[in-house]
Amino acid sequence: MNKSYWVKGVVFVFFVFMQMNTDFLSAQTSKNSLYKQTSEMADMMIQYDADKGSVTRFYASSSSQENRFSRPDAGGGYNSPERRQRFLALITDYQKQMLKLDFNSFDINGKVDYILFKRNLEDQAYQLNEEQEKYVKIAKYLPFENRIYALEKVRRRGLSVVGQEVAKELNDLNKEIVKSISGVKKMDSVEMVLADYASASIRGLQSTLKNYYSFYNGYDPMFTWWVPKTYTVTDSLLNVYASAIRRKGKTVSYQKDDGSGIIGKPIGQAELVRQLKLEFIPYTPEELVEIANKEFAWCDAELLKASREMGFGDNWKAAQEKVKNSYVPPGKQPEAMFELYNQSVDFLKKYDLLSIPPIAEETWNMYMMSPERQLVSPFFLGGETLMISYPTNTMDYEDKMMSMRGNNPDFSRATVHHELIAGHHLQGFMSNRYKPYRNFPTPFWTEGNSLYWELLLWDMKFPQTPEQRIGMLFWRMHRCARIMFSLNYHLGKWTPQQCIDYLVDRVGHERANAEGEVRRSFTGSYGPLYQLAYMVGGLQFNALKKEILDAKKMSLKQYHDAILRENKMPIELLRALLMNQPVTRDFQTNWRFYNK
Q1: Do residue 425 and residue 375 come from a single domain?
Q2: Quick one: 394 and 538 in the same domain?
Q3: Are strands 249-250 and 365-368 parallel, antiparallel or unpaired?
Q4: Angle 443-459/466-490 helices, nearest 10 degrees?
């Protein structure tokens, strides 16, 4: 063979090999880039959210057209039987689609999305079926609902109506509502939760009818001549009926007022366990209380060390009292918070702990919290907006002093990073920019990650003085106490007043602040697991950090960046994703993350 041909052949083969290798590397790079923002499940999840929004708006009972199109959850939070069944059908359709997917061919990103999307659908179906069971119990109070829905179905397509016939239908409807109102006077009391639901259902029908009336009135001449007077009576009667049903409610399943004025609804052992499983927390409520006790013991030991350094011996409450009295003068709290923020961010940058986009630093701002809001939020809140909680001229002396003492600089130093960077503000900033299709919000990620920074910065000696350590320990004890009082309350063991006393005596809260904390925990918009999610989520993030660093999977900075770029999700699934662990279609929680 001619030597030159042989050489050319080798060169050609080498060139082809290199080109194939280059193409492979390029494909891998492209694939890795793809998974920065999407997965095999993203399209289906986006389609579902859009479909759910369409169904929600179409079957809404709200009379505000602007709200119907601007808010995907419009409709007053009320699910008519029609809308509830449509949601269940939608969920069933997507569940069938998921069964056809080749789960085993997915990247770990797609597998995690599949598991969590499947969980979301199952939980939504569970909630709808629970609502249906409740509806069956109150349907007897709504004998006229189908007549109102029949009117609304006509309106949705803008069909012509005969004004005289509509007026007659409403007149007949009025007679039926009057009969129902009379029946309420003779009926026995009903469980409060059912009375509330029945009343809300009547209000939903009232809103649906208003929607119908507003559509035709003023536009259809004969409707406008015949209907308004009769409709006004119908609307008034529905209002009377809803109020009458509500007054028949009795607090069977609610705790009685124990003097605190706070009346929530404990959910009980079975529901706590169900919700913990939903969040991929493989611990019982009792085991979580035990964890809280162990963490509290650590705090106690550290608190005594700081108290002794300050010259108060084992009298930690006296040491804490001195710290509380280090509050800044009225009017100076915002600039004090800004100074604490600068110290916190400088520390993060000094040790290069995570990536901080310049625009994230640029675009947060402050607002002052109203006195009314401070009744349920006695400490500052964060996110893109830092809401300063501090006394106003409208508060009396004791409330002013409790607010200033509870928001002193050493206490606030412990949480400014929790609320801004690297906490809630940076979380929201990154969640809007990375995998926003992931609709898996959980306080174990949101609050747990912010709490994790408190744990990490403690370990890295961010608090320099015993006063600063007492400030950080106050909040750490507070997070332990949240596990204790929220679980004991929902297990039916503690009343709200016992929870308040526990925060005052065991943690050192000002009483007004403790009352605000308990009030927002049990009567606000927080879920039953929200308050325990701070410390439990923080412990999960801490355990995952150790696993990842020990396995040399990532550097500390890479770990922190990865958390924010994967968006919110239960931490056990984040662990599977970051560690690229094998997972099955029917994945069950099993990560025992606490080893102390």
Answers
A1: yes
A2: yes
A3: unpaired
A4: 150
Mean pLDDT, residues 229-256? 87
Q: Which two tokens stand for residue 148?
A: 């109102």
Q: Which residues pair with 367 in a beta bridge?
A: 387
Per-residue pLDDT, 68: 39
In a domain, 387, yes or no: yes
Do the beta carbons of residue 130 and residue 197 sit within 8 Å?
no
Residues 321 and 436 in one domain: yes
Distance CA(254)–CA(268), nearest Å, equals 11
Number of domains in the chain: 4
Predicted confidence (pLDDT) at residue 81 exceeds the cutoff of 50: yes
Residue 297: asked if its preceding bond is cis (omega within 30°), the reply is no
Please, what sign has the CA dihedral across residues 57, 61, 67, 71? negative
pLDDT at residue 395 in the model: 86
Q: Which of 50, 533, 515 is nearest to 283 (CA)?
A: 533
Q: What is the pLDDT of residue 8?
A: 54
Binned at pLDDT 50, 70 and 90, residue 596 comes out as confident
Tell me the C-alpha distance between 547 and 446, whole Å. Answer: 20
The distance from CA 245 to its chain's CA centroid, rounded to whole angstroms, is 31
The Cα angle at residue 362 between residues 359 and 363, in degrees rounded to 5: 90
Q: Across residues 468-474, what is the average pLDDT?
A: 95
Gap between the Cα atoms of 295 and 309, Å rounded: 22
Statement: residue 23 has pLDDT above 50: no
pLDDT number for residue 4: 56
As beta bridge partners, residue 191 has: 250
State the residue range of the domain holding 237.
142-250
My answer on whether 336 and 422 are in the same domain is: yes
Structure tokens at 537: 């989520």
Q: Is residue 262 part of a domain?
A: no
Measured distance CA(70)–CA(77) in Å, rounded: 15
Per residue in 101-159, pLDDT tens?
999 999 999 999 999 999 999 999 999 999 999 999 999 999 999 999 999 999 999 99
How far apart CA 390 and CA 216 sit, in angstroms, is 51
| Residue 392 binned pLDDT confidence (cut-offs 50, 70, 90) | confident
In a domain, 260, yes or no: no
Tokens of 419: 């609320």
- Closest of 348, 330, 334 to residue 426, by C-alpha: 348
Average pLDDT over residues 387-397: 87
* Total Cβ atoms within 10 A of residue 396: 8
Do 18 and 55 lie in one domain? The reply is no
The tokens for 393 are 């001229």
Same domain, 301 and 191: no
- State yes or no: pLDDT of 76 exceeds 50: no
Final residue before a domain boundary, out of 82, 112, 138: 138
Integer angstrom CA distances of residue 425 from 333, 339, 358, 359, 418: 20, 17, 13, 11, 9
Boundary residue ending a domain (115, 138, 161): 138
Distances (CA, A) of 580 to 29, 35, 312, 327: 17, 13, 50, 48
Judgement on whether residues 130 and 146 belong to the same structural domain of the protein: no
Task: Look at 397 and 33; give whichever has higher pLDDT.
Answer: 397
Domain contains 595: no
Evaluate whether 45 touches 119 at the Cβ level (below 8 Å): no
- Identify the band that residue 3 occupies on the pLDDT scale cut at 50, 70 and 90: low
Q: Do 371 and 411 sit in the same domain of this protein?
A: yes
